[in-house]
Amino acid sequence: MIKIQELQKYFGQLHVLRGIDLQVEKGEVLSVIGASGSGKSTLLYCINGLEQIQGGTITVDGVKVHDKGTDLNNLRQSMGMVFQQWNSFPHLTAIENVALAPRIVKKKTKSEAIEIAKNQLVHVGLEDKLNVYPSELSGGQQQRLAIARALAMDPQYMLFDEATSALDPELVGEVLETMRLLAEEGMTMICVTHEMGFARDVSDRVAFFHDGIIEEIDTAKNIFENPKSELTKKFLSKVR
Amino acid sequence: MFDYNFHWRPVLKSLPDLLEASLVTLQVAVLSMIIGIIIGLFLSIIKLKAKGPLQWFASCWIELARNTPALFQLFFFGFGLGALGIHLTPFFIVLAGLTFNNAGYLAENFRGGFNAVPETQMKAARSLGMNLWQAYTRILVPQVLKIVYYPMTNQFVWAVLMSSLGMLVGFRELSGETQFFASKTYRIFEYFAAAAIIYYLMVKLILFVSRVLATRLFRY
Fold first, then answer.
1. Is B126 on the interface with A (CB under 8 A)?
2. Residues B82-100: pLDDT tens digits?
3. CATH class of B16-217
């Protein structure tokens, strides 16, 4: 379970997250929607410990992420992260991209790591691209590679930071399809997204971010069909 | 046309010695590059990331290496340390001087290289649970080395040529050896002409090998 209490985050003078309270249960799919600059992505970076926080707590399975004694390298293994600009490692082939972390972080043997990597690449539909360098892959394929790479660490949670925003329109579908598949398999997911169709169809709950706070959070059905906040209504009317 | 008779015979006779000395040249240049790359990487990371005395130290190193004559740097490790009672052998004087110089120049190349790798690569590596060391050695440095590969080759060539300064601290590399024979036989022009050709061929060889190596190393 991911539990966020009273989270405060500043970038210098800029107050990005202004008191976030949020709880994500195992198996849940939460979509986070809202305008750019509302702090959605920053939230994910904070959960993963990639950003420091200035107030409040984030606990993942009972471990405080920002405690001094927390072994972040260990904790991060339970949270896979997928970025907007896919960030495949360009100097490694697809299978090396996926096998690297299991081998050097989880200390698997080389053959075990390769086996894991192969399975995950099959999982995301890249079985015919094992020995290809990322530069020869399309954006959608690179993003699926990034998903496979995160999954190879056998995470409990997956954090998606606008995973489809940087893709050409015709490549968005294949990545969303992979995310949908994961959701069906019961993965706990937090998806920062601009894909309203995905948010509506796949998520259990949807959180609408506005100006550093959660303006409204409810089931996907309620948010999209019966939003309570005026700001949510306004936002949804613009993106639809 | 001009009043000089060339005598190449003594050069030919001592050619094996010259070639042997050119191996010494190569040896000290290669060693100074390997150590220089490692130190240069640390210097560039320190300059980019550290604060306080550590950063000051790295900046000083880079500034001195780049903005003073290489000869003076060699003299520092020879006569400078000598005055303090630390006596290095000629080999180590040259190795230390060249390494100091290489590390300083390479650090600036590497700094540019690190800036060229997207910041998100580090984030992606850390998000997979890699520690800082793993993220640098497995993800960032390999990409940086590709970016700065040709500047690095230049520095290697430069190291080979700079090692000729070793002659002035009594090191018998190619130039020292050439000087030795030249003053013994008074065939100064012939010997240095031969040495120049050997230097030229060495550099050409290095450039060729580095180009072949690049195609093997960087397939992406």
1. yes
2. 889 889 999 999 999 999 9
3. mainly alpha
